[in-house]
Structures are given as structure tokens and as C-alpha cells.
Amino acid sequence: MALSRIWSAFIIIAISAALFTSIFSKNGKMVFNKMVIGKSGDTSFTKTIDSNQLSTAVATMLLTSKDAKIGEDKFIKNDDGKIITFKEQAADGIITTCETAVNFCIRLIGIMALFMGFMSIAEKAGGIQLLSKIIGPFFSKLFPDVPKGHPAYGHMMLNFSANLLGLDNAATPFGIKTMESLQSINPDKSTASNAQIMFLCLHASGLTLIPVSIFAARAARNAVAPTDIFIPCMIATFAATMAAMIIVSFKQKINLLQPVIIGWVFGLSAIIASLVFYINTLSKSGMEEFSGVLSNSIILLIFLSIICGALYKKINVFDAFIDGAKGGFETAIKIIPYLVGMLVAISMLRTSGTFDVIIGGMKQLFASIGFDTRFVDGLPTALIKPLSGSGARGMMIDTMKTYGADSFAGR
After folding, report:
1. What distance in Å separates the CA atoms of residue 51 and residue 59, rounded to the nearest whole number?
2. 62 burial class (0-12, 13-18, 19+ CB within 10 angstroms)?
3. Is the distance from CB of 183 to CB of 138 less than 8 angstroms?
């Protein structure tokens, strides 16, 4: 019910903001076209102006570059000194967003089929149960309603392992499988259980040791040092995970001062501290090589362990893989309606100008109390992250495209 109200509010606010813009803004006539059939990169209201008509901020940007962008307003400096300015749409409209959501799910089918196929092998070979026993003492304290040795513990471990490596696409099928396992023991099928809430909060906080996908995105945007966000990412996600665990535990009356929980938390803290210390001793190229080798080798090691364990248990490996892969295909198709609905609502907020108003207001608020406002440009990604991982990824890419991969907001 809460998500339904949030989703409805997104749409109502977006359409109301667009209506207000169309009536009171001189450039508001195109807002409805932008929201429905517009595409990211579409241009409108192109004109040529003199350099003396530029704001100080834009003029400063154009001293070191041939183009500059403030919000949706883009400026390009010609060789003759004239400035071409136009509005460039920052987000796709409803129609293109629907296509994007479906295409994303289609691309996800192969990845989900692969990982859920291997998960099926691990389940039939007893690997999930083994993981459950290993992490059971810790998770049984955080998830007191989940029976000892339940397969959900193993699914959680695989999900968190994928998150640790920054492999969002790999974490998705594991996360869905975890929720399905937890739902099977949920006494009230219409309401999320305490265990599901705890898992979702820990998953959304996204503890990450090696953010491989972010490194790749920054490299694609020609960042000078794609891996320079490694330590901030690790510290930020660790803090978020601890905050999520503490807040949910307080709400669910879970005692975090139990020896098992303290031991695991301090152990994980020590591992992260050691990794940070080691990474700081590496060069830029060494850091990139280490992160790539570590993350990819762990994935291959997981695959090898599953296959060897299945052969030892005399499991029909390929049949088990096919059974799980079929589930991956079905799951990817099932999430299309949910993804379309959420991404369309986000698109409407962006194309209606609602996000611009929110960001502008927050900049003024933080500026009035003397804060550095550069971080506010990166807030859309943070606001969308708990609702949609793919939406947050799109926001992240858009922020780097708009402000630069090496800008404060881009980092």
C-alpha cells in the first residue's frame, strides 16, 4: 500500500508540475511533448547569442571548454565567438522509458538464467544449505523468524556477495530468490515480514568492497582516475549498511549487543580496514588490476565450487542448470510490469521539471546555512537508489554526462 501511494504521488506531482509549467513558463509549451514522446538528447529553443549575454558561471565554463551545460540549458562556443544555446532534454519521456524498461529486462534474461541456473545446481548439491550453516549463527540473530538452516540464508549470502563486488545484475536474481524463499515462510502473504524488511534494507544499503560496475561507468565517461572513488564507496556503503542494520533492529527490537553479532561486525570492519590499507599502497593501474582480478576470480571460483560439489554429490549438473535457468527467464519477464511502472514515474518527475525544482530548493537551503552545495547535484541518484537500482544507475550516468565524471557530483 505504501509503494502504491508513493507511485501515485509521483505521477500526480509530475503532471501537476507540468501543468503549472505549461501555464506560467514562457518555454512551457513543450513540456507535455517532453514527458510523453521526448527522448534524452532532444533539443529545442535553439538560438545564437553574444558572449556578453552569458552568466558568470557559463562564461567561466566556456573559458576551458567549447561547451557548457546548466540544467537543460546547453551552450556551445563557435570559432567566431558566437554562442549557440538550446535546451537539451536530460531524460527520456514515457514512451521511450517503457521501451528502455523492456529492453533492460530482455538483457537481464541471460544473466538471470545463468546465475539462477548455477543457484539451482548449488541447491540440489547442498551448497545453499552449507552456506546457511556457515552464516546461520550471525543471520539467525538478525532474522530470528527464519528457521535454522533455511535455504534463504544461502540465497542471502549469494546476494550480499554479489553486492560486495558491485555486480548489480548478479545480485538481482539472488535477491529475488531470497525474497521468494522468505515469502514461503511469511504467515501474512499480503504484508512484508520482518525478515523481508531487514533483508531489503541491508540489500538497498549495498555494502560494496569492489564497485566494478561503477569503475566501468566512470572509465566509459573518460574519467581521469576511474577508481578514485573506491575508498569513499567502501566507507559510504559500510556506514549505510550499519545504519540500516541498527535502525531496523531497533524497530524490530533485535539486540545487537549479542557476542555473535559484535564478532561478525568487528570482523567485517577489520577486513574492510585491511583492504583499504592494501589498496592505498597500490598505484592507479595496480588498483584497477587488483579489483578486476579479485572480482572476476571470485565469480569463477564460485562457479567451480558449485560444479565440483555437484559432481561429488553425483547430481545431474546440466539438468539442474536448465531447471534453474528456466526460472531466471520467467523471473525476468515477471518484473517487466514493476520496472515499467517505476521507471515511468521517475521519468515523469524528471521531464516535468519536478526534480529541478527540488534540487534548486535544496541548493538554496544548504547555501543559506553555509554548506557546500555541490553534492546536491548528485542527490537524484541517492533518492532513486532505494526504489530502483537500474533507475539509480541511469541517474548516475546522467549526472556524469551532465557535470563530468571527474566533477564533485559525478564522483
Report:
1. 8
2. middle
3. no
Q: What angle do CA 121, 308, 149 make, to 5 degrees?
A: 55
Cα separation, 171 vs 389, whole angstroms = 11
Does 238 reside within a domain? yes
341: CB partners within 8 A, 6+ apart? 7
Q: Are 51 and 45 in contact (CB under 8 A)?
A: no
Residue 77 inside a domain? The answer is: no
* Run of H or E residues at 70: strand 67-70
Q: How far apart are the first and last CA of the chain?
A: 35
Q: For the chain, what's the residue count?
A: 411
The domain total for the chain is 1
In a domain, 73, yes or no: no
Is the CB of residue 336 less than 8 Å from the CB of residue 357?
no
Question: What residues make up the domain containing 268?
Answer: 127-312
**What residues form DSSP beta bridges with 47?**
85
Q: Does a structural domain hold residue 291?
A: yes
Please give the torsion angle defined by the CA atoms of residues 25, 29, 31 and 33, in that order, rounded to the nearest 10 degrees: 180
Angle, helix 336-351 to helix 389-403, in steps of 10 degrees: 30
Helix axes 168-184, 389-403, angle to 10 degrees: 160
**pTM of the predicted model as reported, rounded to 2 decimal places:** 0.66
d(CA 410, CA 400): 5
Q: Which residues pair with 68 in a beta bridge?
A: 75
Per-residue pLDDT of the chain in tens (411 residues, 90 and over written 9) = 556 787 888 899 989 988 988 888 776 778 888 888 888 777 777 778 777 777 777 777 777 777 777 767 777 877 777 788 877 777 788 998 888 878 877 876 787 788 778 878 887 888 767 766 777 777 778 888 888 778 887 788 778 777 776 666 567 777 888 888 888 888 887 888 888 888 888 887 777 766 666 766 677 667 776 766 777 777 788 888 888 888 988 888 888 888 888 888 888 788 878 877 887 787 767 776 776 677 677 778 888 988 998 998 888 999 999 988 887 777 778 778 877 887 888 888 888 888 777 877 887 888 888 887 777 777 777 776 665 565 666 667 667 766 777 777 777
Alpha helix stretches (DSSP H) within 253-388:
259-280, 284-312, 317-334, 336-351, 354-368, 379-384
The Cα–Cα gap between 1 and 5 comes to 6
